Each structure stands twice: as C-alpha cells, then as structure tokens.
Amino acid sequence: MARAYIGIGSNLGNREENCERAINLLIKNDIEILKRSSMIETEPWGIKDQPKFINMAIEIETCLKPEDLLHLLKKIETRIGRLPTILWGPRIIDLDILLYDDLIIETPELKIPHPGTYDRDFVLRPLAEISPDKIHPVFKKTIVEILSDRL
Known about the structure:
With 151 residues, the chain is α+β, with helices and mostly antiparallel strands. The chain has helices at 15-28, 66-80, 121-130, 143-150; strands at residues 2-10, 32-36, 40-42, 53-62, 94-100, 105-106, 111-112.
C-alpha cells in the first residue's frame, strides 16, 4: 500500500460540500482516508478575479499506482461537475496528487510532487497541518520547513 497526499479545492457552489463529496467518493472507491486537514478559505491563485477557494489536504492509503490514482481523481472531478475551463480558473472541485510516497514522477500527464507544492500557501498550510514532518522528496525539507521558508 502507498501513502499519498491529495489537495482538494473548490470555489464554485457549496465549496465545503463539494470537498466532502470528493472525500466520500474516494472512500467509495476503496481509498482509505488516514488524515484530513481543516478547510481553509484562500484567495485565488493565478487569476485573481474569481471567488475565494476552500482548500484542504488529505493523507490517504491506496493500492492504486500513481497514474491510476490520477485517473480516479479526474473521474471524481467529472462526477461532481467539473467542466473544462481556463488554467487557474474557477472550478467546482480540484483534486491534485501532491505527494505519493517518496516518488518523483515527471510525465506529460503527471508530475509528482505536484509542481505547485513549494510556492503555494493554500497547499502548504493544509499539508503542514496533517503531516508537518513529511520530507519533500525534491527539496529534502519537511513541509513545515518549506512553509516557514515562505513566511
């Protein structure tokens, strides 16, 4: 079994309910939720003229390979109602693999660790809440050290 960390975000509709629905769909697909952060309201990143986000992170245990986990996340996003939009635009749900064990993967379809982990507080804060001592496999620092570097 692998341990992975998933970032969850929503800025359309009932944001909290969208995040909870994503977690419930993960559970229904045999994903074990080990830890979950609190939900935090954050400013949009990239495109500022859109509603604020609710962001959180979860730690999961899965037997799915990273590519299969990505496909499951995309399937759940579609089921909840995510539609194609502009990069960094508003979305009903966003599910990202932030970390997967200590793997480093870079393919056209999948990048692990998620490339936005290091410079996005809305990713780091929830991740630090549930796993402050997790070592980032690229930067060789704990999540809490990376977060404090940003302050």
